[in-house]
Amino acid sequence: MNLTELIIKSIIILVIFGVTLVIAMYSTWAERKVAGFMQDRLGPNRAGPFGLLQPLADAGKMFFKEDFIPSQANKWLFIIGPCLAILTALMSSAVIPFGDSIRYEGLTIPVQGVEINIGILYVFGVVSLGVYGIMVGGWASNNKFSLLGAIRAASQNISYEIAMGLAIIAILMMTGSLSLRSIVAGQESFLTWNVFTQPLGFIIFLTCAFAECNRTPFDLPECETELVGGYHTEYSSMKLGFYLFAEYINMFVSSAVISTLYFGGYHYPFMNTVHNALTGSLGEVTGHNLATLIGMLVLFAKIFFFIFFFMWVRWTLPRFRYDQLMNLGWKSLIPLSILNVVVTGFGLLYDIEYASWLIVIVMVVLAVMSSARAPKRVVQPQRS
Amino acid sequence: MQLTNRSKQVSNKEMTLAEKMYLPAIAQGLAITIKHFFQKKPTIQYPEVKRYLGPIFRGHHVLKRDEEGRERCTACGLCSLACPAEAISMVAAERKKGEENLYREEKYAAVYEINMLRCIFCGLCEEACPKQAVYLRHDRFVPVFTERDQVIYGKDRLVEQLDDRYVRTGSEVRATPTEPTLSRSAT
Ligand code: SF4
Ligand code: SF4
Questions:
Q1: Is residue A362 part of a domain?
Q2: Overall number of domains in chain B
Q3: Which residues contact A337 (CB under 8 A, 6 or more apart)?
Q4: Is residue B37 assigned to a domain?
Q5: Of A153, A225, A326, A348, which is most buried, counting CB atoms within 10 Å of its CB?
Q6: What is the DSSP pairing of strand B152-153 with strand B88-94?
Q7: Across residues A191-197, what is the average pLDDT?
Q8: Which domain holds residue B131?
C-alpha cells in the first residue's frame, strides 16, 4: 500500500465518518419534521430556513444542560455506558460498501472503510456489542427503572438477533460469501436483488432491525408509561445526547445494511448501460468515477428511504406489549426464518432461485382462508 | 350513551391468521399516515400570518374621541367600578375655559391608566361606560411586554389618534389584523 492509496483511503474513511454523523444529526430534524407532517403539523421551522438549524440548537442545548451523575451511581460505568453506545454505533458503518471503486493514477480503490471478507459478521458483532452500552448505562444508574429498561433491551436484542441471523443465513447461502461487497456484487441485475429472491427473509430482517434499533413498535426499553425514561432515566446533558444520537446512527447503519443486503447496494437498473455510456464519452477513468458517484447517490437514496420508513413506522404503530414482543420473536419469526432457510436450501438444490416465495404464497393463502372462515364479528349496538 | 358513530366494541375473539401476522393492519396504518403526510397543513404561521379574529374580539383598549375630536370620557369611574380585575384607575379634573375643543364634558380624566398585567380583557369596562368612551379594539392586540414598567398604559397610549380612528359597525367589519409580512414561507 503506497502513500497515495493510504491518503485516499483515509479521506474515504473520514468522509464516511462525517457523513454518518451529519446524517444522524439531521435524522433528528427529519424525525420531527416527519412526525409533524404525519400529524398534520409543520414540525420545527423556526431555527433557520425550514428549521434546518434545529439540530445545532438542540446540540447546543444539550451541551449547556447540567451534567449530572447520581451520588449512588457507579461513576465510571455511568460514563462508559453512553460512550460505548456511540462508539459501537459509529464502528459498524466501517465495512459497508458505499460505492463501487474510485480510479486514480492507475489505482482502483473501493469506496468502503475496510474491505474484510467477513463483513456481515463484523456488523453483526458490533451491533451485538451495542447492547452493552445500554446494559452498562442502565445498571450503573443504580435505579430500578433504568435496570429494568436495560434488561428489556438486552433480552429483546438477544431474542431478535437469532431471527436476524437466520434471515441473513438464507442470503449467505445464496451468495456463498460473508463479504458485503460480494453480496452486493451478487445482486447486479434488478431481478436478482435479494428482496425479490428472499421476500420473507427481508420482512424478518426488517422487523428485527426495528427491534435491534429499539425503535417503535419495539421501543420497550424506553417505555415511558412503564419505565419513566427506561435505561436513560438518570442521564442528562451530552450523555443523554450520546444515547439519543447512537439510536439515530444505528438507524442509519441499519438502513445502509438493509439496502446493501436486500436492495442491491449501489446497483440500479441499467447500471451497465450508464457505466458504458459514461466511460465511452468521458474516458475510462473519469467515466468510471462518475458512474461510481451515481451508484453512491443511488445507495444514499435507498438509505434515506429506509430512514424515512423507520420514521414512518414509528409515527404509525403503537408499542407492543412485552409478552407480544417475545411471542412474535420466539414463536413466529424464529420458526419462520428456520423454514425460510430450509426452503432456500431446497431451492438451491433444485436451482429454483425464487423458492422462498413459496412460503409467502402459502402464508397468504392460509391467512385468506382463516379470515374467510372466521365467524363474522357481531357488533352489538351500544347500550345507551 | 353513543357520542360518535365511530366507537368500536372491544371483542375478545380469537384473531385470524391474517390478524396475527399484523402485516395487513400495519399496511393499512401506514397508508393512513402517508395520506396525512401529503395533506395540506392547517397551521397558521402565527407571528407572520395573523388570522381575522372576528368583530367581537376584545383586544387593545381605546379611549374614544367624538366626531369633533373631543375626548368622550367624563371620568365617572364606572368602568373602574365594573372592572373585576381592578385594572383601571383615573384622576378627574375640571375642564378649564378654552378647552371645550379638547374635552366633551365639563369633567374629564386627567390621568387614565389601565394596568395591562391585571386586565383580563373581559370587556366589562366597555359595557359599563355611559359615554361610549372606552372600547376594546377587535383589530389590535396588546403587544407583549417584558418589563414591569411597560405594563401600565396611560392616556398617551389609550386615547384614540385622529388619524387612526377606530370604527366597529355591524358584524361585517373586517379591519383584519393580517400583516402578511411573510419573511418565512409557510412550510
Ligand atoms: S377589559 Fe375587563 S379587566 Fe380589562 S380593564 Fe376592562 S373591565 Fe377591567
Ligand atoms: S371611560 Fe366611560 S365609564 Fe370610564 S370613566 Fe370614562 S366615561 Fe366613565
A1: no
A2: 1
A3: A163, A166, A167, A170, A200, A201, A204
A4: no
A5: A153
A6: unpaired
A7: 80
A8: 44-187
b (16+ CB within 10 A) / e for A127-149? bbbbbbbbbbbbbbbbbebbbbb
Indicate the residue type of B179: E
How many other CB atoms sit within 10 Å of the CB of residue A241?
20
Nearest-neighbour CA in chain B from A164: distance (Å):
18
Residue among B2, B9, B39 whose CB faces A40 most closely: B39
| DSSP one-letter string for A202-258 | HHHHHHHHHHHTT-TTS-GGG-HHHHTTGGGTT--HHHHHHHHHHHHHHHHHHHHHH
Chain A hits for B42, Cβ within 8 Å? 40
Peptide bond into A217 cis (omega under 30): yes
Which residues share a beta bridge with B91? B111
Q: Is a pLDDT exceeding 50 seen at residue A8?
A: yes
Is position B27 within any domain?
Answer: no
Residue B75, domain member (yes or no): yes
> Which of A53-57, A310-314, A335-339, A374-378 is the least confident region?
A374-378
| Residue ranges in A105-143 assigned as alpha helix (H) | 119-140
Chain A residue with minimum CA distance to B29: A316
End-to-end CA distance of chain A: 82
Q: Are A17 and A90 in contact (CB under 8 A)?
A: yes
Supply the range of the domain harboring residue A335. Answer: 3-343
8-state DSSP, B77? -
Contact between A131 and A157 under an 8 Å Cβ cutoff? The reply is yes
**Among A69, A93, A85, which residue's Cα sits nearest to residue A242?**
A85
Testing ligand 1's pocket by substitution, the residue of B73, B121, B138 carrying the most ligand atoms inside 8 A of its CB is B121
The answer to whether residue A276 is domain-embedded is yes
Is position B38 within any domain? no
Q: What is the DSSP letter of B169?
A: -
Look up residue A12 and give its three cell numbers. Answer: 474515504
- E strands along chain B, which residues? 61-63, 88-94, 107-115, 134-136, 152-153
Q: Which residue has the cell 383615573?
A: B90
The nearest alpha carbon in chain B to A41 belongs to B41
Residue B129's SS3 state is coil
| For residue B84, pLDDT beyond 90 | yes
In a domain, A376, yes or no: no
Helix axes A199-212, A237-262, angle to 10 degrees: 170
Q: Distance between CA atoms of A115 and A13, rounded to whole angstroms?
A: 12
H or E stretch including A14? helix A3-38
pLDDT at B170 (0 to 100): 56
Least Cα distance to A81 among A91, A93, A73 occurs for A73
Are the beta carbons of B29 and A38 separated by less than 8 Å? no
Q: Is residue A181 part of a domain?
A: yes
Q: What percent of chain A has pLDDT over 70?
A: 97
Q: Is B124 in the pocket of ligand 1 (CB under 6 A)?
A: yes
Domain count, chain A: 1
3-class secondary structure, A103: strand
Cβ–Cβ below 8 Å for B30 and A313 = yes
